[in-house]
Amino acid sequence: MSVLNQDVRQRVDDQEWALRIELAAAYRVFAMFGWTHLIHTHITAKVPGDKEHFLINRLGLLWEEINASSLVKVDADGGIVDHGSNTSSINPAGFKIHSAIHQSSRAADWIMHFHVPEVNAIANLKDGLIRGLSVYSMDLGAISYHDFEHATSGSDVCARMVSDLGPKNKVLMLPNHGAITIGGSVHEAFYLTYQLVQACKVQILTQSCSRSNSDILIVDEETVEQTYQIVQNNYTGNEFGKMEWDAAKRKMEAEQGLGYKD
Questions:
Q1: What is the pLDDT of residue 5?
Q2: Whose CB among 63, 184, 206, 253 lies 3.0–4.6 Å from 27's, allowing a Cys bridge?
Q3: 3-state secondary structure 118-162
Q4: Please, which residues bridge with residue 80 across strands?
């Protein structure tokens, strides 16, 4: 049975409320960086201690309008468990993709799906992203790819997407579509997204200045992997992306205020 009540804070526990605030912050940070597609695409998070429920944005809101109370809690099939602060609906096709990954062996706590044009452009290239081209791309690890299929085009679409993501990779490029990043925390998924967007921008700029890839300086695969491992080993003393996420959130709060916590 779905729930509708204006006072969301009073009916959820502290863990879920804290998650709602972090997820709302993520939507606002994406809006700040321009990683939005009007009201479309999604960031989802698994409700702590609850394998069956997830939080997602209400259909129709711009991402800078999203706050903790407006988020919708759904079950694994996309059924609304808690509408949040207003009568709401979600994009069932969009959540279908997220649900498949959340419930797969990857069991990602955070999933970010976006249609940033530069990322879409690089995903469209037959050779895809060049990992050895920039410090941004070297932070991403191996990249997975899944050819375009609409989520509603068949019952096996999401299973194929999960299969293409594979057992270890955290970035899934979607040619003619966009990309997905996954993480065990908001900061991991966020920083993968940031590095991916910047990596795609560098590649577009570099390839636009060259006659072919033979003109481009590309770091060898062994060095790329060594660099990736250094970053994964928390050489800053913090988890991957933690300091960067905190900085991005401070910037968002300075520009947009604290309304996302409502």
A1: 44
A2: 63
A3: HHHHHHCCCCCCCHHHCHHHHCCCCEEECCCCCCCCCCCHHHHHH
A4: 74
